[in-house]
Amino acid sequence: MLATRKGRREAGVFLIEGDRAIRQIIENRPDEITEIITKEELPPVYSNYPRREVTDSQFRSICLTRTPQGPIAAVRIPEGIYSDRLPKDSSGRVMLLEDIQDPGNVGTLIRTAAAFDYAGVILSEKCADPLSPKCVQATAGSILSLWLRGTSHYLELVKTLQDKGYSLVIATLEGNDKPSFLQGQDNLLLALGNETAGPSLTLMSMANHRIRIAIAREKAESLNVATCGAICIYLSSQK
Questions:
Q1: Residue 234: which of 180, 176, 158 has the closest Cα?
Q2: Is residue 16 within 8 Å of 136, Cβ to Cβ?
Q3: The whole model's pTM is what?
């Protein structure tokens, strides 16, 4: 039942696998864990949570990876994650992901944004679901470290942030600004587009700035979107 977005909504939880990822949740959002699923004895850090012991075959049937790494935690779905309204406090740098379809890329970008203290991430409806197993695993427990909004009305959220003084900066091969422009930008909405098609024309028309990362095109045609995003996120954290 938890495999689909509808199933997760009905159950109200999603799954996180692995000791390190679960400890990250315990460190930041301990009250969001509803249950620990395990096939073996657990260390004391898990003692405050309800525990369900299962057989090895049962555990493998519900684990998220082919080679399970530690226990599994059932975690409450973040409030408003699939809504089209921003949080009441939407200050701080924000990342926008438009139609990025690989869950590994989405999860890696969420993890990187969290690592450099972004406040939130907006995802278009055609993005990989941030609560899909592969995406959650790629976040390595950072999935609750910032707010998420996945919605078909993402352009309306962009406009709302721009009206609040945010600059929409898009990373694109057609950009004219250097990535160093990102440094010191506090009210920043950093946008990354689809792995193949790039940002949509509509989003491009809304941009305040378009940046381009110069690469040796004769050696590599382009950067992976997660790599491009990581470079931009890092630069934006520099004062």
A1: 180
A2: yes
A3: 0.91
In angstroms, rounded to a whole number, what is the distance separating the alpha carbons of residues 109 and 106?
Answer: 5
Phi, psi at residue 72, to the nearest 5°? -120, 135
Which stretches does DSSP call E strand in 158-222?
A: 167-171, 188-192, 209-211
Q: Which CATH number fits domain 94-236: 3.40.50.300, 3.30.420.40, 3.40.630.120, 3.40.1280.10?
A: 3.40.1280.10
Task: In whole angstroms, give the CA distance from residue 40 to residue 38.
Answer: 6
- 97-151 residue pLDDT tens: 999 999 999 999 999 999 999 999 999 999 999 999 899 999 999 999 999 999 9
166: its two tokens: 């945010």
Looking at CATH, the fold of the domain delimited by 5-76 is given as: 60s Ribosomal Protein L30; Chain: A; (3.30.1330)
User: What is the Cα–Cα distance from 61 to 50, expressed in whole angstroms?
Assistant: 20
**Sign of the torsion angle spanned by Cα atoms 173, 178, 183, 189:** negative
Q: Measured between alpha carbons, how far is 195 from 98 in angstroms, rounded to an integer?
A: 9
